[in-house]
Write a structure and sequence with these properties.
Layout (H helix, E strand, L loop, with lengths): L1 H4 L4 H27 L4 H4 L2 H14 L6 H20 L6 H16 L3 H16 L32 E12 L2 E12 L3 E5 L6 H8 L7 E6 L2 E2 L7 H5 L2 E3 L12 H9 L6 H14 L15 H14 L4 E5 L7 H16 L3 E5 L3 H7 L2 E6 L2 E6 L1 H5 L2 H8 L6
Parallel strand pairs: 3-8, 3-9, 6-7, 7-8
Antiparallel strand pairs: 1-2, 1-4, 4-5, 9-10
Helix pairs in contact: 4-5, 4-6, 4-7, 10-11, 10-12, 11-12
């Protein structure tokens, strides 16, 4: 989902990965056939051989390019040694040794040899001249996120920039969204609130193509994008989003994560890197630019999620619980960042349970309850609406 939301056509990536894997496998199979001079499918594709290949990947490191190579370099000599040492005494004991090696690897090296090597290699790389210095640059802190938009003071706020009309979605016997309609004017911040299960994230998923609505229409800049699939097509329309549960690419650095989003708009790696570094600098992640995403705190992961979305140059940015789980200081910092983004001309549609954030930032608020819109208006109007108080805010909010 995260890759699709950044404009990555994942089906193509998977197909290319499969083709590359098949290419090298077929080449190696040809060499192997020439070596043994005889091909027996029951021998070549036997269970022991399949287990051995799986061990190469698991011990070397799942999800990595070099991991299987590390595994092969370790296990192939070990296999030859064990066959020579144990083969004449008790055939098959080598698989017991394999099992022990696998248990040790899973217990003490869960990311495989590649993860262990990277653990020691990355700090050394960062100590090298220029290897790990965070991005520092004088001058403007942030480039234009959406260059097609003018300054906020000149934005047209009279006509609907984004429109949802009678959106409806049912999951079996549950109606998640029922005839929801609202507009977003260009350059404004629209808040979306409601109790858990009200359908807020479902609305986001319907807009961004992760779910197809049963009926209704979604329009962006006068163009119907209802049910536009796959989701990367929505990103290409300059609609970005974050997720309620942050989804960083954990085995990639902060810089690499943001570059994934930047590649949606630029083709050259140097340009993607430049834009990614500028956004990282703007969001206060410079000191973490070469750190793995898995090492970040929840607050920094939220910033990273926001940075990736901004790298796609959105004109409409959907923020799903971007301040959830943050302390008051971190919340204030994110509120300030969102204001700066809006001042660049980016229209923002945000979900939030932190009332201070949504009431402070929003120009207007839409309230959902059981999939239905029960209120819409300025924050002060919504806060005093009896239906909103009963369904969500509670009487203590007015105290």
């Amino acid at each position: 989902d995260a890759a699709e939301s950044l404009g990555v056509k994942t089906s193509n990536c998977k197909l290319i990965a499969l083709i590359i894997s098949a290419f090298f496998t077929s080449i190696m199979g040809t060499f192997y056939a020439q070596y043994i001079l005889f091909i027996d499918p029951f021998t070549v594709f036997s269970l022991p051989n399949s287990i051995e290949l799986a061990l190469f990947t698991i011990i070397g490191g799942l999800g990595t390019v070099v991991g299987p190579l590390y595994g092969a370099f370790l296990l192939t000599p070990l296999d030859v040694f064990l066959r020579a040492w144990l083969g004449g005494v008790s055939a098959g004991l080598n698989f017991i040794v394999y099992g022990l090696v696998l248990m040790v690897a899973v217990k003490y090296f869960p990311k495989g040899l590649s993860g262990w090597i990277n653990k020691w290699y990355t700090p050394l790389l960062q100590k090298m001249p220029g290897g790990g210095r965070p991005f520092q640059e004088e001058g403007p802190s942030f480039p234009s996120i959406a260059p097609s938009l003018v300054q906020a003071s000149e934005v047209n706020k009279k006509s609907p920039f984004f429109s949802v009309q009678r959106l409806y979605k049912r999951f079996g016997g549950l109606v998640a969204v029922r005839d929801v309609s609202f507009d977003i004017k260009q350059g404004e911040i629209l808040g979306l609130i409601g109790p858990n299960g009200a359908g807020k994230t479902t609305i986001f998923n319907l807009i961004t193509g992760f779910i197809t609505p049963d009926s209704g229409e979604v329009q962006f800049k006068g163009e119907t994008i209802t049910g536009l699939k796959p989701p990367h097509q929505v990103c290409l329309k300059h609609i970005g989003r974050t997720f309620q549960l942050v989804k960083p690419f954990k085995d990639m650095t902060v810089l690499e994560n943001v570059m994934v989003g930047a590649f949606t708009r630029v083709k050259e790696a140097s340009e993607a890197r430049k834009r990614a570094l500028e956004i990282i600098h703007f969001l206060g992640l410079s000191k973490h630019s070469n750190s793995l995403a898995s090492s970040l705190t929840i607050a920094d992961r939220k910033r990273l999620e926001l940075a990736r979305a901004l790298a796609t140059k959105p004109e409409l940015l959907l923020l799903d619980e971007v301040v959830a789980g943050l302390n008051p200081k971190e919340t204030e910092e994110i509120i300030g960042i969102i204001r700066k983004i809006r001042d660049q001309g980016v229209t923002i549609f945000m979900i939030a349970h932190v009332m201070k954030a949504v009431m402070t930032l929003s120009d207007r608020i839409v309230v959902l309850h059981h999939g239905e819109k029960i209120a819409e208006g300025r924050p002060i109007e919504v806060a005093r609406d009896r239906r909103v108080i009963e369904a969500y805010l509670g009487e203590e909010y007015l105290a």
